[in-house]
UniProtKB/TrEMBL annotation:
MF terms in GO: nucleotidase activity
Record-linked PANTHER family: PHOSPHATE METABOLISM PROTEIN 8-RELATED (PTHR47438)
Annotated organism of origin: Sparassis crispa
Pfam families registered for this protein in UniProt: Hydrolase
GO BP of this protein: nucleotide catabolic process; pyrimidine nucleobase metabolic process
Protein origin, superkingdom: Eukaryota
Name the record gives this protein: Pyrimidine 5-nucleotidase
């Protein structure tokens, strides 16, 4: 995969921003459950009881959008060590497989009209690994990730993360951003910053883990009227018809 942080200043194409985890693959892969178990174990490894670990995990996820953000801020841990023990230890090759349908979807985006970038709260090694296993790494032109090597990193839904993404892709007109994420909070944050056509990926009825707590995925009626909700990525063909090949 070619990952670059700058683009031509006069490139006025749309940019499709793809969240990766629980968006490019289904929650049925149970990766959020496996990740939740590892994050819980990491909290316990810091000396917390099971109950304390659960409370802190959920609190930090809710407050910052990423449990690791709270760990770095309040516990002075090494984010790269966390990444190795949590994301890095996931048996992704056993949980995911190449997705020809996803590959066809991305290939059918007219690159004369839109660029395709990844926008993830994961570190680059995890994101690149997922994209490679799914068989779409060569379809992603750029990747904006949480830089765990920097203790002051930002993450979605913090405005600074979105501003950094715009800078890296050299975007001035935020209406050119087409964004999809499984997190309603992240989608709403993007809309507040003027990002154009935003989509909430919501697999109704599926089970997932957020902040260490098991939940059934369900559509929240409070989502803004101008945000489209879909349950299958193929629906992007009708949501964003103007960027797909005829």
């Amino acid at each position: 995969m070619t990952v670059r942080s700058t683009e031509s200043q006069n490139d006025d194409r749309y940019v499709v921003w793809l969240d990766i985890d629980n968006t490019l693959y289904s929650a049925s892969a149970k990766i959020s459950q496996a990740m939740g178990e590892r994050i819980h174990a990491y909290f316990v490894g810091l000396g917390h009881t099971d109950e304390e670990a659960s409370v802190l995990h959920h609190r930090y996820y809710t407050q910052y959008g990423l449990a690791l953000r709270g760990l770095v801020r309040h516990h002075d841990i090494d984010a790269l060590d966390f990444d190795r023990k949590c994301d890095g230890s996931l048996p992704l090759e056993e949980m995911l497989k190449p997705d020809p349908k996803l590959r066809n979807l991305l290939q059918d985006i007219d690159r004369s009209k839109a660029r395709v970038w990844g926008l993830t709260n994961a570190y680059k090694t995890h994101a690149e690994r997922v994209l490679r296993i799914l068989g779409v790494d060569d379809q992603i032109e750029g990747l904006v990730f949480c830089d765990y090597a920097n203790s002051d990193f930002f993450c979605k839904p913090e405005p600074e993360f979105f501003h950094d993404a715009l800078k890296r892709a050299n975007i001035i007109d935020t209406s050119k951003c087409l964004f999809i994420d499984d997190s309603k909070t992240n989608v709403e944050a993007a809309r507040k910053l003027g990002w154009g056509r935003c989509v909430h990926f919501c697999e109704h009825g599926m089970q997932a883990v957020e902040g260490g707590k098991e939940k059934m995925i369900a559509q929240d009626g409070t989502i803004p009227d101008d945000v489209v909700v879909i349950s299958k990525l193929e629906e992007l063909r009708t949501v964003w018809p103007d960027i797909f090949k005829a």
